[in-house]
Amino acid sequence: MILGPAIALAVSAALTGFPPSPPVAGGPPVAGGPSPPVAGGSPVAAMAPPYPLHPITRGETREPQVAITFDACATRQGWYGFDRDVFEILKREQVPATVFVSGRWVDTHPEAMADMANDPLIEFGDHSYDHPHMTQMSSARVVEEIDQTEAALARYGRRSVAFRPPFGEWDRHLLAVVGGRQLPTVTWDVVSGDPSARATTAGMIRAVVGQARPGSIIVFHINGRGWKTHEALPAILQALRQRGFRFVPISELLKAPVAAPVSSPATHPVLGRP
Ligand SMILES: [Zn+2]
């Protein structure tokens, strides 16, 4: 996500009302089947296909657990950077986190990638290669964006546990193609607002701690676009711990029996099922 939280929320809200349509005939467009496990890589996504044709915004659990996630976006125009302070806070506090990387970010930040890939606290998600708008793309182009990023991660012995669409923009076609690559699509239910230059440390703490609930997926940035993330993060982690929350990676959150939002098959057909 690069857009401000208001826009991203508007996008999410607008798309949540996506009209129901008939189930996709013939099941997901699986090409080549599951990839072989990569030695030393992160655990395979716990959630098995078929995946829902809406993004997972939170884990359906009553356990007091939340997922701390970061986006590391990069486009052809901007490679951005690495907020090493954030990584140091995660290590110091022993907080597992899921980092959704654009493949171009992986390829332009070798030192940061080597450090994160060597740390078992970090698992990775796929955030496309060039951070394009993906809802108008052909299946072939979507697959290319995903696979290029997986190839970049594989050079560090890692693979993704989930996909997060750039700008939070999605449609059913995109999710079907992503599901065909064996990845659930995951967005968020708690926005830190950290890419906004107007975000204040106190405001971010209030927003995240106030919105978090069991199963929440919280989005921050670790590519230097979160101007005050490293200032707010320690207080956020401390306050969430005081409220009884523990931190889990996305792969663990998705192990919950049903991933939210809960929806009836009648209104949200699941791939390969009526
Ligand atoms: Zn992004």
In angstroms, what is the radius of gyration? 17 Å
Largest sheet: 7 strands, parallel
CATH superfamily: Glycoside hydrolase/deacetylase
- The first-level CATH class is given as Alpha Beta
The SSE string, one letter per element, is HEEHEHHEHEHEHEHEHE
Domain module tally: 1
Question: Would you write up a description of this structure?
Answer:
The chain has a single domain (53-260), classed as Glycoside hydrolase/deacetylase (TIM Barrel, Alpha-Beta Barrel), CATH 3.20.20. Helices cover 33% and strands 14% of the residues. The protein has nine helices and nine strands. It has helices at 5-16, 84-93, 103-108, 110-117, 139-154, 172-180, 201-211, 229-242, 250-253, and strands at 58-60, 65-72, 97-101, 122-126, 160-163, 190-191, 217-221, 246-247, 258-260. Mean pLDDT is 82; it is low at 3-45 and 259-274. Bound molecules: zinc ion. The site of zinc ion (ZN) has 7 residues, from loops.
